[in-house]
Amino acid sequence: MPERARRTATPLAVFINCPFDPSYRKIFDAIVFAVCALGFEPRCALDRDDGTEERLTKILELIDHCPFGIHDLSYMKIDPRTRLPRQNMSFELGLFLGLEYAKRDRAPGKNLRKSCLILDRHQWRYRKSLSDLSGRDIRAHQGTPRQAIAAVRGWLVTESRRTDAPGAAFLVSQYRRFRRQLPALCAGARRNVTELSFSEYRATVSVWLSMNA
Amino acid sequence: MVPGEHGTWNVVDFGRRGFSFPTKSAALDFAKNIAVANQPSQVVLFDAFGRVEPVAHYQLPIYQVPHHGSAQNGGSLFEATMKALLIGGFAAAGIAVLGDLVDRVEREARKESTKSRKSTSGTRRSRRT
Lengths: 213, 129
Fold this sequence. Notes:
The complex is a heterodimer. Helices cover 45% and strands 10% of the residues of chain A. By secondary structure, chain A is of the alpha/beta class. In chain A, strands 2-1-3-4-5 form a five-stranded parallel β-sheet, sandwiched between helices. Chain B has one domain. Chain B is 41% helix and 18% strand. Chain B contains three helices and five strands. Chains A and B meet through helix 5 and helix 6 of A and strand 4, strand 5, helix 2 and helix 3 of B.
């Protein structure tokens, strides 16, 4: 296999629209790892969480900047505390699809195409609450990091037409190695794994990958 | 690939075994052969200043160290810490790493850790449900 030519361009950004609930974190962390391991740059609303910018503006700018988006609808359910549905993920998915449509219409022929992966815990659950998505291919991760990584890898490689991407099994084994080493790395930085901010986690993944692949 | 004393170069394989070479090009050839035989893989070089440079890729993309990282949000801290841990691990495994490099990455990690402690009173993730 010949050595791959080096790319110097900025990596393509992937907008991650997922719950930031601690109970979802194992899927979120796996998705961020998979995006980095494929040579892309994960972005999310936590990127610039300095409290000085209006939240919706920040999210719209992020969506506009990212040609790819990953949207997880698995928290589309009634919150047992408030007895209200959680709407943020489906709202941001709507923003992304709207911008995708607007860009496709207004700039024909230009490379402004956007693409998104819609994830849920089960493949057909969305039909009962978000039937407007009918016709879209929704991937199920069944609540497991392994299937989330495989879904992200399959979609991102297809949509980016990347030819140097490692396979899903390799990514999963790398992710397991990384998770085993993460507590010791965090201890070296005097942190707990659960205290890592999004930026810190992303930096850790990127540096680990550059030294351990 | 890691620089050693007296101009030598070390190649550390996947089993953390070290191999010493008199020249950089000989080390690079050896490292590439290991990487080719263990795809997907890559060859990464540490220079004498502790900087990391990917030099060969086999079925892998180039991993990007995030340019949003900074001492304030942890990017530099983690990069420095991981480099120090990795280089320290090599030295502990008996691989003859250039002494200046060991000192430099440890100093960098200590500096970033001090900066981070001063500026991370609010690093907990915000919650969105």
